[in-house]
Amino acid sequence: MSQLGVKESYHYRQMNELTNNEKVRVLLAQALFGNPDVLVLDEPTNDLDLETVLWLENFLADFKNTVIVVSHDRHFLDMVCTHVCDIDFGKVQLFTGNYTFWFEISQLLQRQQAQKNKKDETKREELMEFIRRFSANASKSKQATSRKKALEKLNIDELKHSNRRYPAIMFKQERSR
Fold first, then answer.
1. What is the pLDDT of residues 21-33, one digit of tens each?
2. How many domains does the chain have?
């Protein structure tokens, strides 16, 4: 508990005598002390000072068992995560790497899908234009039929919208008149 910032003089006090910050630290120490096979931490850096967060990062880096962390602290996630489980679009995907790696990869995948869809949409429009222009032409009807089959096979994936929310506070400046 001392390493988590709980003074030794507080070690024998009752929980109801401690502040909320101290209670969080005691409960965290209790969870870590048991050396569990799976450690689940929900926002573990809340109410911790920088020194304690750094200690926790180092502790978890050396922890040999499984740790599942839910946190909004991106730096903390970068320091302790080796895998990121992304729950979005109604499915779960596992990425190897820290938070920054996952974020960059997910953005890249989304851009690639958008580019593919744009290319496929252009191809679809070209095929439809050819079919429209030459389906009545006897000499080009075979080509038009071939293009119709190609059009049927063309699969444009709908870009799914993430159910993630990135809350932000936006201030709009208005000029005084």
1. 788 888 888 888 8
2. 2
